[in-house]
Every structure is written in C-alpha cells, then in structure tokens.
C-alpha cells in the first residue's frame, strides 16, 4: 500500500489561489532502509520553508507529497505508476537507492515525468532526456576527503547497494559542511528527534533544484508542466550545499562530488 506521508502546500502568489502542481519524493520509509527516507523528508520540508520565508513568487501552488517504496524494486515500480498517474505531479525526486531507482525510471519517463535521481551513481542510470543524474560518476573528478573515520559511515549505505566502496559516498556528515549545518539547523524540529545525515544534504539540494525549475517554467509559461519543468532543469544553475549544480547535455551533474571517509 502506498502511504502518503504529507502534503505540504506552498502558496507562492499573493492573488487568488492559482492551480496546484506537485513534487513527489519516493523513498523507503519502512523496513531496513527506512533511515534513507527519514533523512530526506525533513530536509525537503526545510527547503520549502525557506522558500516561504524568502517570499518566492511563482504563479502556482506547489504541493509536496511523499511515498514509501519499502526499498523494494517491485514495489517501487508500482508506486511509480501511481505517481505518474497524478497529472498534477510535474517532477519526482527518487528513489535514493540504486535498485529501486532503476526499477522505477521507465515508468516515469514513459509518462513524460522528469526525475531527479540523487544518491545513485550517474554511471548506473540511463541517459534519458527526463532523467537528471545528480549522483557522481565513478571515478569522480570531484573527490573530497571526510574527516570522519570509515567506521562512522552509516551501514545503510552498504545495504542500498552503493557501489563505490565501503568508505566512498556522495555526501559527507552534516558536521563537515558549514552551509549544511546552517541550512539543516531546524531539522530535528521536523524529524522529532533524529539528526540530519548525508542524505539530508542531497535531498535539500534536489528539492531546491526542482523548485528553481518550477519557478523558471512558471515565469516562461505561467503554469508549470512536466515538459516545461524538464526543459527548465536543463538550464538551472543552483548553488547548492554540495556545490554549483548544473546539468550537461546528458542531464548529468558532471561536478557531483564523492566523499572518501578516513580509515
């Protein structure tokens, strides 16, 4: 069963309520990989809250919905079908696990739905006009060292099938990025206790990239659409917590970093 965790509506125009568009987060919220989803979702909410505080103005309300895929590829594909059937969804962030992301991608692309795919190595994903590969390539040309020991790496990374080795991932501990500490300072208010982790960083960045694309499409067309958001994503330059995010002709973030934990 698909579990709708939250709808978070943001009224970004000051006049009469405009039409609604939606962004979907799909990730595991139950089972052995549930930490993946619970690191990501509060970070999305914080990104939204910052936009509200900044008074961003586009001509649409943006609703954020989150679905549980249990970390299971077969279930992820079924969830993707339900997401794709909702005509108000103009972009997806998911699934933050290699196996489930791969299982769901064709469902989204057949429905002309653009997908931001963080926390999955770029080389594992197909080159497709609607798949925006936010994960690093192997080997990454932007490799950095973490001050944390390898033993501090959360074991869920290995469980997700992350392929770069036991001590190499796509984001560091929050404590090692001042910008992430500041951006995610209120994380525990929304998570009701658990602190942010590396996936909180990538989810925060992905959310802001998709919000930028929706705003850009709204400026051009008035009402964001799937095709318009996909086109806008190709033109985005976002200064994220992990660096400047922009996509090349293959919809790949070529400068996506990897972080190697110490031994």
TrEMBL record:
Transmembrane segments: none annotated. The keyword Oxidoreductase does not apply. It comes from the Bacteria. Keywords: Signal. It holds the Pfam family Peripla_BP_6. The keyword ATP-binding does not apply. Residues 21-138 form the Leucine-binding protein domain. Belongs to the leucine-binding protein family. PANTHER family: AMINO ACID BINDING PROTEIN, LEU/ILE/VAL-BINDING ABC TRANSPORTER SUBUNIT. This is Leucine-binding protein domain-containing protein. It comes from Candidatus Thermofonsia Clade 3 bacterium.
């Amino acid at each position: 069963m698909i579990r709708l965790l939250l709808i978070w509506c943001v009224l970004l125009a000051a006049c009469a309520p405009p039409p609604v568009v939606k962004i979907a987060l799909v990730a595991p919220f139950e089972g052995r990989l549930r930490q993946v989803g619970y690191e990501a979702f509060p970070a999305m909410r914080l990104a939204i809250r910052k936009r509200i505080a900044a008074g961003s103005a586009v001509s649409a309300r943006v609703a954020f919905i989150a679905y549980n895929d249990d970390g299971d590829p077969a279930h992820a594909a079924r969830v993707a079908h339900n997401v794709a059937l909702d005509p108000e969804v103009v972009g997806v962030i998911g699934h933050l696990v290699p196996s489930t992301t791969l299982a769901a991608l064709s469902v989204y692309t057949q429905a002309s739905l653009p997908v931001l795919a963080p926390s999955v190595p770029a080389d594992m994903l197909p080159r497709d006009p609607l798949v925006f590969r936010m994960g690093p390539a192997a080997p990454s040309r932007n490799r950095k060292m973490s001050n944390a020991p390898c033993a501090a790496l959360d074991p869920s990374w290995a469980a997700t099938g992350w392929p770069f080795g036991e001590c190499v991932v796509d984001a560091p501990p929050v404590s090692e990025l001042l910008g992430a500490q500041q951006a995610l300072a209120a994380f525990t208010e929304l998570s009701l206790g658990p602190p942010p982790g590396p996936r909180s960083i990538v989810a925060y960045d992905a959310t802001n990239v998709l919000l930028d694309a929706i705003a850009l499409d709204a400026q051009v067309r008035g009402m964001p659409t799937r095709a318009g958001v996909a086109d806008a994503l190709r033109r985005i330059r976002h200064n994220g917590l992990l660096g400047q995010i922009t996509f090349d002709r293959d919809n790949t973030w070529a400068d996506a970093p990897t972080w190697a934990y110490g031994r």
